[in-house]
Give the backbone structure.
Amino acid sequence: MNVEMIQTLFDYHYARHGQMWGSIMQLSERDFISEGAYSHGSLRNQLVHLIDDDMSWVSFLESKAYTHLQAEDFETRDRLFEIFEQTEAYVLEFVNKLDDAILQKSYHWQPSAVPHPQEITGLQVLVHVVNHGTDHRAQIMRMLQDFGVPTFDQDLMAYLWQSGKTKAT
């Protein structure tokens, strides 16, 4: 996998997140914060987790300290959407400056659930971020469906075709 493909994956990641926000904005504020039974609970909590994960991993790759977000600090969709937009801009700026050295670089990671530090590459981290986003977007879209809000196809191949990144034969 090369830099161009990682950049394409992040374009996909944020394009589908943007569509998801279009659906989220159709909810009431009450539905936005109402507690769910799966994963991180409410839609708000899921979104805070998504934003937090993107920022924490990019900060990790940059060797920068990061202070985690708290869901309770975001009572409205509009405020959280502002943070989402800031995160998207920051992450895409990082991704658009990528080079092979960052993808191949080894990082030491100490997950809390694993007894020994792990060695991971920048490529592994960045693929994780996109995959993690797809997983939680699917959970969020199910919650949106339960609220009666229209959702969309988040398929990568559909994105590649729609964005002109495939070629007609």
